[in-house]
Design goal:
heterodimer; A: about 160 residues; alpha+beta; Tetrahydropterin Synthase, Chain A; six-stranded mixed beta sheet; B: about 140 residues; about 30% strand; elongated
């Protein structure tokens, strides 16, 4: 099994707050992360592509194609933004890094085939560091590739190293 | 259980296929295709899977693992131009993927004992690009 992993970095602000919880509950659950003005992080995003090395080029996919996909679907929308206000998925979804990783996985998978028409390589993992002390990993199973995006959450496992 | 040993080497390479045009090479490899080559500080992480020996308490003697990495990888590759000096990269493009596969090939037989086997190679070309090779698919 061979995977190529490309690391991207972006900074963004967010606030952890759930409308379905009371003020006191929000404060209890999210602590400092519930600050009404929000706060920010320098996120580190690892995108794993699993597949065969092309016999001629020695590549799984062209890096420029992967970079274009991640730049278009993720970095352009997330970098230097307030995730709660500027990214549609987080209008109601709390932008914990678990959810950020799942949203990024869904966005990349949605546009995957059109960026790599020449390759059967697949998105196999999204790993995110919120800080150097917190990392979150979404492992995307092989069978999840053909299922509809909404159903795929069931096939993903999230590992949190905190 | 898994144990991992890290090693570093610096080498130059160029990624291009002679049978392709200049334009095609740059479309495929980007800046990596510049003909005279360039270099990287590679970081290699070698992971073994095994059980501690009941007498020594070790999965593998790390001194021996260090010697194997030095002999099979560091000595032949460190401060070399991979395309000219390290077979099979006179014929195979030394992409990070191909280099990781070659490292797997060189280590697999050496890192196989009664209690352990090679489980994973992680090769960083730089801080923002790396390749993982696991299991038998590296052949």
């Amino acid at each position: 099994m061979t995977s190529l992993i490309r690391r991207y970095r972006f900074c963004a602000s967010h606030r952890l707050h759930s409308e379905s919880l009371s003020e006191a509950e929000n404060h209890r659950v999210f602590g400092k992360c519930n600050n009404p003005y929000g706060h920010g992080h320098d996120y580190v995003l690892d995108v794993s592509v699993e597949g065969e090395l092309n016999a001629t080029t020695g590549l799984i996919v062209r890096l420029s194609d992967l970079d274009r996909l991640v730049k278009t679907e993720v970095l352009a929308a997330f970098a230097y933004r307030n995730l709660n206000q500027d990214v549609a998925e987080f209008t109601e979804l709390v932008p914990t890094t678990e959810n950020v990783a799942l949203v990024i996985a869904a966005r990349l998978r949605q546009c995957w085939a059109e960026h790599f028409p020449y390759s059967s390589a697949r998105l196999s993992r999204i790993s995110m560091q919120e800080t150097e002390r917190n990392s979150f990993e979404v492992v995307i199973s092989n069978t999840a590739q053909t299922a509809p995006i909404a159903a795929q959450k069931l096939n993903e496992s999230v590992t949190v190293n905190a | 259980m898994f144990i991992t040993r890290k090693a570093e080497f610096s080498a130059s390479h160029v990624c291009r296929v002679d049978s392709l045009s200049e334009q095609e090479n740059f479309e495929i490899y980007g800046e990596e295709a510049h003909a005279a080559g360039h270099g990287h500080n590679y970081v290699l992480e070698v992971t073994l899977e095994g059980d501690p020996d009941p007498v020594t308490g070790m999965v593998m003697d790390l001194k021996v693992l260090k010697e194997v990495l030095e002999r099979e990888i560091i000595q032949p590759m460190d401060h070399r131009f991979l395309n000219f000096e390290v077979p099979p990269f006179d014929k195979v493009v030394p992409t990070t993927g191909n280099l990781a596969h070659e490292i797997w090939r060189r280590l697999e037989a050496e890192l196989c004992g009664p209690h352990f086997r090679l489980s994973k190679i992680r090769l960083f070309e730089g801080p923002d690009l790396y390749v993982d090779v696991t299991g038998k698919a590296a052949a």
